[in-house]
Specification:
- With 296 residues, this protein is of the alpha/beta class.
- 39% of the residues lie in helices and 10% in strands.
- The strands form three sheets. It has a three-stranded antiparallel sheet, with no helix packed on it.
- The relative contact order is 0.06.
């Protein structure tokens, strides 16, 4: 299209005065990008010429709109199945963006946009999917379960959240009592956290703090199993041993505070004999190592 005279608004249906990223300018000026408009103009131009080059900037994940809708450059590319050419200079500042764009384009696939969920099903605008992992086990009783929804609504009418630092409330107490009734021995205190990973972090911290309070400051080590998975926060990754999830920790090297052993009684006995006075805890997944390969 170089050298061809035509109205600017035909080539650029959205023109902003504010000199910031397009998605910010659109928000500031109250003129959000609509994909339908962009595609309509693009198709109109394509109908007039033998070939058309659409130029983007920054990277394939550059947001064109980022509010209640999310529109990125990749969405435009996918909508018209366009071939892509990456152009960049050799300056240090561009290498990261170019490499990220190139790697992303190799496996470019947008996440499914869910518009509704009920029972075991997730719905996009045109598909019905079975959620076989229950949103990573967070919705094991199904989506829009009437009893759970009702309990949430009742609680919301009272208040949505109160911190449990020096405070408590009836719902937290009822749950604590129920958990206590199921637990053996003197396991009768509950500490609530916001996720599985954080729960493990809290448990590891409690184990360490217990011995620090007893002045047994040498007990800084944790005994764990090979192929274990305990979460994706830093300490939970450290006590885990799953290459697929925790390879990033190689940057720090092997931790001197974690001992990983195979799932064998002999290895456990040897670890206790060697490290018993330096251990503060032994962490183990109950019954099954799921992420590690469904190991019993």
């Amino acid at each position: 299209m170089s050298g061809i005279e035509q109205p600017l608004e035909e080539v650029c249906p959205y023109i902003y005065e504010t000199a910031v990223s397009p998605h910010l300018a659109a928000k500031i000026e109250g003129n959000p990008v609509e994909m339908e408009c962009v595609l309509k103009n693009f198709d109109h131009i394509c109908g007039k010429y033998d070939y058309v080059t659409a130029e983007g900037s920054i990277g394939i994940l550059c947001p064109l709109r980022f509010d209640e809708q999310e529109i990125r450059l990749e969405d435009f590319i996918k909508a018209r199945s366009l071939a892509c050419l990456i152009i960049a200079d050799a300056g240090l500042g561009t290498i990261n963006a170019v490499v990220l764009t190139a790697e992303y384009m190799k496996t470019m696939k947008s996440p499914y946009k869910i518009v509704h969920a009920e029972g075991v099903y997730l719905y996009t605008e045109d598909q019905k999917l079975i959620d076989s992992v229950s949103s990573w086990w967070g919705v094991i009783h199904s989506y829009k379960h009437p009893e759970l929804n009702q309990a949430i609504e009742i609680q919301l009418k009272r208040f949505a959240h109160v911190m449990l630092g020096g405070l408590t409330h009836e719902s937290a107490q009822k749950l604590s009592d129920k958990l206590q009734s199921w637990l053996p021995g003197d396991l009768d205190y509950c500490f609530f956290s916001d996720s599985g990973s954080v729960a493990v972090e809290v448990a590891l911290k409690i184990a360490l703090q217990y011995y620090m309070n007893r002045q047994e400051t040498q007990r800084t080590m944790v005994l764990a199993l090979e192929h274990a998975y305990h979460g994706d926060t830093f300490k939970t990754m450290e006590v885990g041993d799953d290459e697929d999830y925790h390879f990033v920790l190689k940057a720090y090297g092997k931790s001197k505070y974690i001992v990983h052993i195979p799932t064998k009684v002999e290895a456990l006995e040897q670890a206790f004999a060697e490290y018993h006075d330096r251990l503060n805890s032994f962490i183990v997944e109950s019954l099954l190592q799921g992420a590690g390969g469904m190991r019993m």
